[in-house]
Amino acid sequence: MLTAIHPKLPMRNRDATRNFYLGALGFQEIGDYGDYLMVQKEGIEIHFFAFPGLNPKENYGQVYIRTDAIETYYNSLLEAKIRIHPNGALEAKPWGQREFSLLDPDHNLLTFGQGI
C-alpha cells in the first residue's frame, strides 16, 4: 500500500536551495513551480515550499536518508568542500548506524545513515 515518502522542507530562497541540492549534493530538479521545488537523487525525492520569513536558527526541518555507500558519499562531500555539521562527522552510533549530518542553506538537517 505505502510506496514512498517525500519530505517537504521550508526554503527561503528557491535559487539558493536549488544551487545547494543540485550543485553541492548532486540532486536533479524534477519540478519547479515558483513557490514549490522538487529535487531527486537516485531513489530520494525532497520537496521544498516557499517560506520567505523563515528564521533558519528556529528551523527544525529534518530528513534521515539511508545509503548503502556512506563512506564514499561522505568523502565525496568532503572533497567538494561541503560543510559537515559541526556535531555531525561520520561515526558509528549506538543504534547500529554509521551516520553524518549537514545543514542546507535554511538549516534543514540532513542526516545520512547506513546500517553497520
UniProtKB/TrEMBL annotation:
Keyword Nucleotidyltransferase: no
Record's protein name: Bleomycin resistance protein
Domain of life according to the entry: Bacteria
SUPFAM superfamilies according to UniProt: Glyoxalase/Bleomycin resistance protein/Dihydroxybiphenyl dioxygenase (SSF54593)
Organism (species): Robiginitalea aurantiaca
Annotated keywords: Antibiotic resistance
Pfam families: Glyoxalase
Record-annotated VOC domain positions: 3-115
CDD domains: BLMA_like
Family: Belongs to the bleomycin resistance protein family.
